[in-house]
Amino acid sequence: MSELVLNPTVAHGAHETAHHDHHEQGFVSKYIFSMDHKTISKQFLITGIVWAIIGGLFSVFFRLQLGYPESTFPWLEDILGRWAEGGRIKQEFYYALVTMHGTVLVFFVLTAGLSGTFSNLLIPLQIGARDMASPMLNMLSYWFFFGASIVMISSLFIQTGPFSGGWTAYPPLSAVGDMSPGSKLGVDLWITAMALFVVSSLLGSLNYIATILNMRTKGMSMTRLPLTIWAFFFTAVLGVLSFPVLFSGFILLLFDRNLGTSFYLSEIYVQSTQTALPNEGGSAILYQHLFWFLGHPEVYIILLPAMGMASEIMSTNARKPIFGYMAMVGSMFAIAILAFLVWAHHMFVTGLNPFLGAFFVLLTLLIAVPSAIKVFNWLTTIWRGNIRFTPAMLFALGFVSLFISGGLTGIFLGNSALDIHLHDTYFVIAHFHIVMGVASFFGMFAGVYHWFPKMFGRFMNNTLGYIHFWGTLICAYVIFWPMHYEGLAGMPRRYYDYSQWQSFKQFGELNELITIAAIISFLLQLVFVFNFFYSIFKGRKMLVQNPWESNTLEWTTPINAGHGNWPGEIPEVHRWAYDYGKDGVDFIPQTEPVGKDESTHH
Amino acid sequence: MNIWLLLLVVAMVLLVIFQIAKASEYVSVLKGEKKAREQSNRVNAFLMLAFMVLGLIGAYWCNEKLAPQTLFAQGSASAEGEAIDTMMLITIAVTGVVFVITQILLFWFSFKYQEKEGRKAFYFPHNNKLEMIWTIVPAITLTILVVFGLRHWFLITGDAPKESMLVEITGQQFGWTYRYPGTDGVLGKKNYKLIDATNNNSLGQDWSDKANHDDVSPSVMYLVKGKPVKIVIGSKDVIHNVGLPHFRLKMDAVPGIPTTLWFTPTITTEEMRTKTGNPDFEYEIVCDQLCGASHYAMRGVIKVVSQEEFDVEMAKLKPLYFAANPDKDPSNQAAPVAAADSSKPATAAVVTTVAKPKI
Lengths: 602, 359
What we know:
The complex is a heterodimer of chains A (602) and B (359).
Chain A: H1 2-14, H2 18-21, H3 27-32, H4 37-67, H5 74-80, H6 91-127, H7 135-154, H8 185-214, H9 227-258, E1 269-270, E2 275-276, H10 284-318, H11 325-338, H12 354-366, H13 368-382, H14 391-414, H15 416-422, H16 426-456, H17 462-480, H18 483-488, H19 508-538, E3 580-582, E4 585-587
Chain B: H1 3-31, H2 33-66, H3 79-112, H4 128-157, E1 165-172, E2 175-179, E3 221-224, E4 229-235, E5 240-244, E6 249-253, E7 259-263, H5 269-276, E8 283-287, E9 299-305, H6 307-316, H7 320-324, H8 330-334, H9 343-346, E10 353-354
Parallel strand pairs in B: 1-4, 3-9
Antiparallel strand pairs in B: 1-2, 2-10, 4-7, 5-6, 5-8, 8-9
Helix pairs in contact in B: 1-2, 2-3, 3-4
């Protein structure tokens, strides 16, 4: 992939000064199989960006089908070949696009690209460590991810096409090859890629946990950690506890597919071959339990890092301490615990025992409480602040707006009686795209704009950043807000064409509008991508160590820090990360000893 | 439209944007960082406010335009669904209030507390009282919503009333089969290994079970207005879902694990046609679980009719048993001449509405 080509040049531009203070490293060990957490984070980020472009482009393709079901686009055939014969995407390929869009965005972009990038970058820098607990495992974590990417990409080019059974891969559709062309080799490759991905994720998460618990600098007690680190910590814990369950679920699926076991299969008659399969006694629902036992924590694996970064960025740019630090940590802790106890709310209409369902309703709506605490705390953080609208700050504020909008619709879906009507409709699409998709993207963008100078020693272009923010915010609402209404009309998701349905064909024009907004939104992301790569080489140079006048430790390292982060001693920490505006002083870095006359807060 | 021309235009627009961005960066470097920040702060703070106002107007306008197109405009077609609609409205009201307040606070604070020369941020790290308030108030509100929700949930998922009629629906790629128990009121036994499409036994009915001998299968699902119906749901291949948006219900069809749902239809198809002003209105059965390439075309139809019409329709149907075993059909035995009229028994065969995918 382009990774191999891009990354060396990227790091080269940014690390001109690095080899002066360090022994010479070979090209390969420095840029490719690097063990420096900063380089690995850039590898994750750039791979994530490449995946985001691919995943986003897939959504443009299937939005074209949804917006213009009657039209043909001859150029699609030029790109997609036989999958879009005559300029119209084939049904099987439409479902493959939907499946890949989901898998890629959820796992490869918003898990690896988000927490892979920023956990790697910020954990050592913000806790005051020279690198991760195990740089070697950290490197392997990236390369397993890279391997997963290669396998996933390769599945796009096989004869029977990529997997097309939805990112949740429910059996029997995903287990029996005769059910659909996409259920043949495509699934095996998909499972292999996902298994490699799980390995990558576990190596990363174990490393993050070990580093945060053991390698904090002198004075950095857990309650002095910036909220970003707490967020990465809970994210890693969630990953370690839930990904193995997904892994086991996938392995059983692989057995069912290739070894004739019946974990998920029972009483199946294959129409196309007119045969009854011998499998009896399995349960297709078992897979859903295993899947959603990861699947729901996964939502918070995606969201928590965005929350942490938004908190940090909002506090810095509002020049005010984050409001209710302990409540913020406590609510993240509550979310992390509850994340494990709500998975069956994805299964309210599977015939789940209603009594059991009642507990999942209760626990699901309970999550709204810590979420509400976070929202009100963010609002109070900007209240009476002195806000600087950097692009990062705008994205952090946009994150809060989207988190409110998408979070509130969760109250509908978590309440099983309402969920029955809304389940698997566009309401669900609107809900999770806003709260988990776009909101997390906003957190990620905020992080990129904010820490870009730390990564590359240069700034991204502000004007392009503002255009990117306002355009994306408007598009996000134009795309997803009206979808709630489609969902209230019962319009099901994952349909290729609605025109023959009496109940849903009235939304033709609306679907067209959504498609146009999606295309504009995609182009705006290209503005960001351009800004990112252009600024690596040509961006405005960072001249001061601490451009945002921030308290946290990463800004005490030199511009373009080498491997090891601090040239001399690792600084000692004397206070929490949020002394902004204390006693009339604009900001007091964590390294500053507590003064004699200072008032006592933390 | 020429795609290359379009791409060229897009590229040109992006280039112009880039040039402007580049120029503005030079200008801001010349002006000094502080000056530049002041200016961008003013612009963005104003945009925050503008976005809030236009966004709220937009949300209102969107509601005016789209709310009549949702199912709530026509009301629920089942007795149980009416309670769901009420609950939906209450939830919309509660979340709507929270939405408007929090979004206004977010964007208003952003505008109001933009960086100003001489303003000092207020050092306010925590306040136990405030934090207690916004823990307890949401908790109480949610408890109320949960209590209402669970009441309806247990009603819907509870046992069907004793006087309910019984219908079986079976999903397969990509259509539905409906089976009625016939005069004995009992659905005969099935075994998926007995499925035999060539011999008119697409459900795998066990003919040694007498209860099977009077089971019938119409091409649409007939239900009776005002009479509760219990639907037994199954699948022959992958997971499907019986989605009944007009009745506010849905339930998965899982191979190997039968599921059920029940409700009471309250409006006939004809009445709904008048009510909606759409002469083509149908209660559609929507497959809501991705089941393969033609998932989007897996459509079934429910006709809600009066008891008399229902009885007429049922009387027209020939039991599936005779379609699979023509030699047992009394009409065949009475008149062996019917051999010439071989198309006749086919009407009694299982009718599966299989989707015809568009290519």
